[in-house]
Design goal:
The complex is a heterotrimer of chains A (249), B (598) and C (291).
Chain A: E1 4-13, E2 24-29, E3 33-37, H1 44-52, E4 57-63, E5 66-67, H2 73-79, E6 81-84, H3 96-101, H4 108-121, H5 123-126, H6 138-150, E7 156-160, H7 168-183, E8 187-192, H8 195-201, E9 204-209, E10 212-217, H9 219-225, H10 227-233
Parallel strand pairs in A: 3-8, 3-9, 6-7, 7-8
Antiparallel strand pairs in A: 1-2, 1-4, 4-5, 9-10
Chain B: H1 2-6, H2 16-34, H3 37-62, H4 70-87, H5 92-115, H6 119-138, H7 141-144, E1 150-151, E2 157-158, E3 161-162, H8 167-188, H9 191-201, H10 203-208, H11 213-239, E4 241-242, H12 249-262, H13 267-283, H14 291-305, H15 309-317, E5 345-354, E6 357-367, E7 372-376, H16 383-391, E8 398-403, E9 406-407, H17 413-418, E10 421-423, H18 436-447, H19 453-458, H20 463-479, H21 495-508, E11 513-517, H22 525-540, E12 544-548, H23 552-555, E13 561-566, E14 569-574, H24 576-581, H25 583-590
Parallel strand pairs in B: 7-12, 7-13, 10-11, 11-12
Antiparallel strand pairs in B: 1-4, 2-3, 5-6, 5-8, 8-9, 13-14
Chain C: H1 4-32, H2 39-56, H3 61-84, H4 92-114, E1 129-132, E2 135-138, H5 139-161, H6 163-173, H7 175-180, H8 185-210, H9 217-232, H10 237-257, H11 260-277
Antiparallel strand pairs in C: 1-2
Helix pairs in contact in C: 1-5, 1-8, 1-9, 1-10, 2-3, 2-4, 2-8, 2-9, 3-4, 3-8, 5-6, 5-8, 6-8, 9-10, 10-11
Classes of the chains: A alpha/beta (249), B alpha/beta (598), C mainly alpha (291).
Chain lengths: 249, 598, 291
């Protein structure tokens, strides 16, 4: 197993702001894509926000071995976490270039260089550097949001439902890029509602249900166990029996 | 005892009346036996300021609107008195009512456009209004005396008999103050006071329980103007001179300071704030001439450290008051009347766009009485948008909505709630400062037309009626297993508790159709079972229910029919068992692998 | 006989100073979502600061200006510390009130320190007029326009093309997200208050030569800034500057045609009309778009 970038142990939140999490433990290694699956209200977003320090939480959170508890979101970002929230939250009035540049705290030359690197990952953005963010299409906005998070050269990337509202083809393209990023060494923790895609992309999966980890393992193992169906539909539907979604990938 | 005295504006407590009587007696003693002529004049002036603050409390404290026109209304009252009294020789019985009527009329005139504005625009509009009034006074030539104003305001005279200055004038002023305080008490101590609390605490909550927000704000605005006019008239008689200074910003700011420092929603606060600020420069000689500076510092300290004012601080830190005796819970009178025919709700072709995104595309929904319809769908499928369109919190771009045959497309949220279509919210919308019982009780009172100025004057929102309404509210909370949270502030409830309170509140409105947005979120297993049983029982009684939920385990067993949405469209519609296995539903939740056609 | 063109020119000079006031006001508004009611009184404080300093230090106006701006920036930090940060968890109306209190303190502080009499600050560029054909403008007016232009453009430059500017804009747009990118948002907010106060100080120094300074000047100016922001569209920086220019032009022209009182009355009337009919102003609410 590769080096552990993020180690979460017995994380719990109050539930005042979102779903109450209880006793959540997970780990993400360098170069791994780990997916968080679960219905809405299961706590995926809350978990990511807790890792980012936006929601008060108890328990242990270690990034690259160092404890994160007690530091706020800005400090955690500076330690190397890139956060792409649900709904993207771009700075709507600012240009693509400005949105990207503001993601980097480095000096002018280093930032420019980083900008070129990120534009290499998302070439579509390079053609629209001066466009205000609100004028971009959904897919472009998502790329911009991820690009902005990458500007800080994070060791851990948190993605909250990046496929939301995007056409299927765009989603695939996006997730391919995420796979590339992981291959280059970034640890990726991804919350997804689209189960099939997440299973196709992830190295490991955690299933969340009502604030608890209901199951964990490789995509194959989870698919076979039936835990996912229970987590989503609460009943006895077997994924592999269905006509409709494409066959096993 | 102290707490009772200070909390009079909120809930009648034992000993409150006695405390007020004692305070009045002490004040009278001071006035008669100890105060010099000068001090008596200061006391009289302080009385006019109490009246001014009592008025300001309606619009600023209760309605929560930052009006900057209070000084202007005050000045108008003063000028009317001076002009009619000094220049035309009219007597008090004529000038006083006119001094009240004039600013009230102005308030009524500008109310419609001004009250619609949101807070920072409203403040500016009232500020602009005040400036216009000031300009009119300064440039009013002979009528207003220009910048110098009018001197020689006559003493108060009734039918030829002149009221001497000094103690008699002081007595009259303070009697008027007492009347004003009594009226203020009557209007705000009952559930109408709670209704204002909902209004300023959470506008969506106010709409959701059918409160007529514009009407409540209108009443508060006019009351504040009327009180200000009375205060201005009396201060004109006290000081004898009226100049444009009365219309300048320092008067407004002083009023604001007195209100904030004393306590913006408590009647005792008006007395404390006004008496304190008027007398402080008198007591502390070194403050003479530095009054405004002191007021500024005190206002800053108050807004940061004691936003509820001195009255609020004392009410909290004084001896812990007995918790109000809670009445035994009463069930709502059985009311399952038929008469809504076969169809409660018929919505066709509902469409809504947000910018370029199609949130809802030509969705049809129908409901019959006693049906429990489940709405499911992944994130972003349009479930909450649907709820918003049906309940008036958003306007549809296309489509029709009929509630028992009545078209609803153009109705606003409060009207829809009053018509019997009630909802709960995904994030509970409860007024933060009210306790849970009050939140439900105000909703009940709203349904029974027991809130508002008329109801308050008639006493329909207090006394026995209030006790009965609160008993019914407690009964509703008990039905949901939430009676334990009744005395707790809504801001302090956990999300699960808040959800239950919201449902109780919704039931208080005796809905025909209840739309619940994720009611089970955050509830434990036992609570879920109880809620499921309750919803089933309500449907059994004839209530039509639409339940939006993610938790299939909760929803599918209790629903009669299920509607599945995805990306704004209906993808499946049928019995729960079918929906659970429906390929489109499974595809929506589990996503499609690459290359699939939608 | 004053020609229309001359009036316009005079109006522009006045508008330049107003623009600085409005700019400081809207920057803070964007950064924290709350009205800084003390902005006008900060202008007055800047003017008095300039007048007092000029008494001690025999410096030319052009050197005095940056000194005053620096001192005012520090005052701006104090305002943030007293009136904004203690009220972080409270609704914006609380900041409205706390800044009203600060304004009251500044106004009456000035009244007691300097008395109600009139004061003035030294000019930036003294001695007569600049002529352009048939039009004439006092040198001080030219200086005002020049300084204001430099500051407004400077603000635009910093905000659009520097790292700090980007961080300030991000903080104003979405504070939580800015923090999640590692930006020290409280520092940004404090800095915005400092900049707003510095701009107010500049406006005060400039105005205090053309117009005599009184402690109550602030009340008038905050109203103008407020109106400028509403006219130009709540939250729009360009709109605030444009609105300020329009107000000044309107005042100058109407005052010449009718009277100063008429100008004020019509201005308030027009403001009320805009609030009722087109509350989103000319350039619309900048915060309307979501991405």
């Amino acid at each position: 197993m590769t080096a552990t970038v993020l180690a979460v142990e017995h994380l719990g939140t109050e539930g005042d702001a979102g779903v109450a999490l209880a006793d959540v433990s997970l780990a993400v290694g360098a170069g791994e894509v780990v997916a968080l699956l679960g219905a809405n209200g299961a706590g995926k977003s809350t978990l990511l926000r807790a890792i980012m320090g936006m929601v008060p939480a108890c328990g242990s959170l270690r990034l690259g071995g160092r404890e994160l508890a007690g530091s706020g979101p800005a400090a955690r970002a500076r330690r190397g976490i890139g956060y792409v929230p649900e709904g993207r939250r771009l700075f709507a009035g600012m240009s693509v270039r400005d949105n990207l540049l503001v993601g980097s705290l480095a000096g002018r030359d280093a930032a420019r260089q980083r900008l070129d690197e990120v534009l290499g990952v998302f070439p579509a953005l390079a053609e629209r550097l001066a466009t205000p963010a609100w004028q971009l299409s959904g897919g472009q906005q998502q790329m911009l949001a991820i690009g902005r998070a990458l500007m800080g050269a994070p060791i851990l990337l948190l993605l909250d439902e990046p496929s939301l509202g995007l056409a299927p083809m765009l989603v695939q393209e996006l997730l391919d890029r995420v796979r590339d990023l992981a291959r280059r060494g970034t640890a990726v923790l991804l919350a997804e509602q689209s189960v099939a895609r997440a299973l196709a992309l992830a190295d490991r999966v955690y299933a969340l249900r009502r604030g608890h980890i209901a199951g964990a393992g490789t995509p194959g193992a989870l698919r076979a166990s039936g835990i996912l169906e229970h987590a989503f539909l609460g009943a006895d539907v077997a994924l592999s029996n269905n006509p409709g979604p494409g066959g096993p990938t | 005892m102290t707490a009772a005295f200070l909390d009079t504006g909120h809930r009648p407590r034992r000993g409150a009346a006695a405390a007020w009587v004692i305070a009045a007696a002490l004040l009278a003693l001071y006035a008669i036996a100890f105060a010099s002529r000068y001090e008596l004049r200061v006391l009289t002036f302080a009385g006019t300021q109490v009246l001014l603050v009592l008025g300001y409390q309606f619009v600023f404290g209760h309605a929560g609107a930052l009006s900057l026109a209070q000084g202007a209304f005050y000045g108008i009252g003063a000028y009317v008195t001076a002009i009619l009294g000094a220049s035309y020789g009219w007597s008090f019985p004529l000038t006083f009512p006119l001094a009240i009527a004039a600013p009230t009329a102005l308030a009524a005139l500008v109310a419609a456009p001004v009250l619609r504005l949101s807070s920072h625009y409203f403040a500016l509009a009232t500020l602009g209004l005040a400036q216009v009034v000031l300009l009119a006074a300064v440039n009013g030539g002979e009528l207003t005396g220009g910048a110098l104003g009018i001197s020689g305001v006559p003493s108060i005279a009734v039918l030829g008999w002149t009221l001497p200055r000094g103690l008699p004038l002081a007595t009259l002023v303070w009697v008027v103050v007492a009347l004003g305080a009594w009226l203020s008490h009557r209007l705000t101590r009952g559930l109408s006071g709670g209704a204002y609390g909902v209004l300023r605490g959470d506008a969506m909550a106010a709409d959701a329980i059918g409160l007529d927000r514009p009407r409540l704000r209108f009443a508060a605005f006019l009351l504040s103007a009327g009180y200000a006019g009375a205060a201005g008239a009396l201060s004109a008689h006290t000081i004898g001179v009226v100049s444009s200074e009365a219309l300048e910003f320092p008067v407004m700011v002083t009023c604001l300071a007195m209100t904030v420092i004393g306590g913006s929603t408590r009647i005792a606060g008006a007395f404390l704030g006004a008496l304190l600020l008027v007398h402080l420069p008198e007591w502390l000689r070194f403050l003479q001439g530095y009054a405004l500076l002191a007021y500024g510092a005190a206002l800053l300290a108050a807004i940061i450290l004691a936003p509820e004012g001195i009255a609020g601080l004392l009410a909290r830190t004084a001896s812990r008051p007995r918790p109000p005796a809670r009445p035994a819970p009463l069930p709502l009178p059985s009311r399952r009347v038929a008469g809504w025919g076969d169809s409660v709700l018929e919505a066709r072709g509902l469409t809504k766009r947000f910018g370029g995104i199609l949130a809802l595309a030509a969705v049809d929904v129908t409901l019959a009485p006693g049906e429990l319809l489940g709405i499911i769908g992944p994130n972003g499928s349009g479930k909450t948008t649907l709820a918003n369109l049906l309940t008036g919190f958003a306007v549809a771009d296309a489509g029709t909505i009929r509630l028992a045959g009545r078209p609803l497309e153009d109705a606003d949220a409060a009207a829809i709630a009053r018509a019997g279509l009630v909802r709960s919210f995904q994030t509970p919308a409860l007024p933060p400062d009210l306790c849970a019982l009050e939140a439900v009780a105000v909703a009940r009172a709203s349904r029974l037309a027991c809130v508002g100025i008329g109801a308050a004057l008639a006493g329909r929102d207090a006394g026995e009626r209030r006790a009965q309404i609160e008993a019914e509210a407690l009964g509703l909370l008990s039905q949901l297993g939430a009676q334990g949270v009744a005395p707790r502030r809504c801001a302090e409830l956990s999300p699960a508790e808040a959800r239950l309170v919201e449902i109780a509140r919704a039931l208080a409105l005796e809905p025909r159709l209840l739309i619940l947005d994720e009611p089970a979120a955050g509830l434990g297993d036992g609570e879920r079972r109880d809620l499921a049983a309750l919803l089933t029982a309500l449907a059994h009684d004839g209530l039509a229910l639409m339940v939006i939920e993610h938790d299939m385990e909760f929803l599918l067993p209790i629903a009669d029919r299920v509607l599945a949405l995805d990306q704004g469209r209906v993808i499946a519609h049928g019995a729960p068992a079918e929906i659970r296995r429906h390929p489109a539903v499974i595809a929506a939740y589990f996503g499609r692998a690459e290359g699939d056609a939608p | 006989m004053i020609t229309a063109a001359q009036l316009v020119l005079d109006g522009v000079a006045l508008g330049a100073a107003y623009a600085l006031v409005a700019l400081g006001f809207v920057l803070v508004l964007n950064a924290v979502g709350a009205v800084n009611f003390a902005q006008g009184d900060l202008v007055m404080a800047g003017g008095y600061g300039a007048a007092v300093l000029a008494g001690f230090l025999p410096l030319p106006g052009i050197v005095l200006l940056p000194v005053v701006m620096l001192l005012m920036a520090i005052l701006g930090l104090a305002v943030a510390a007293l009136a904004y940060f203690p009220l972080l968890r409270r609704p914006p109306s609380a900041v409205f009130i706390s800044t009203i209190a600060i304004g009251l303190l500044l106004q009456n502080g000035a009244l007691h320190l300097f008395g109600p009499g009139l004061r003035s600050a030294p000019p930036l560029w003294s001695g007569g007029q600049v002529t352009l054909g048939a039009l004439a403008l006092s040198r001080q007016s030219v200086a005002i326009i020049a300084v204001a232009a430099v500051l407004v453009l400077g603000q635009r430059l910093v905000f659009r093309h520097t790292r700090l500017g980007r961080q300030l804009r991000a903080t104003a747009a979405d504070r939580e997200m800015a923090a999640a990118l590692g930006i020290r948002v409280y520092g940004m907010i404090a800095l915005t208050f400092a900049i707003g106060a510095a701009l107010a100080g500049a406006a005060g120094t400039l105005l205090a030569n053309q117009f005599f300074l009184t402690p109550t000047e602030g009340g008038n100016l905050i109203l103008k800034a407020y109106i400028a922001v509403v006219i130009g569209g709540w939250g729009s920086i360009e709109g605030a500057v444009l609105g300020a220019l329009l107000i000044a032009l309107f005042e100058t022209v109407v005052a010449a045609a009718l009277s100063y009182t008429a100008a004020s009355a019509l201005l308030y009337g027009a403001t009320l009309a805009i609030l009722f009919l087109r509350p989103q102003g000319l350039l619309g609410e900048a915060a309307g778009r979501r991405a």
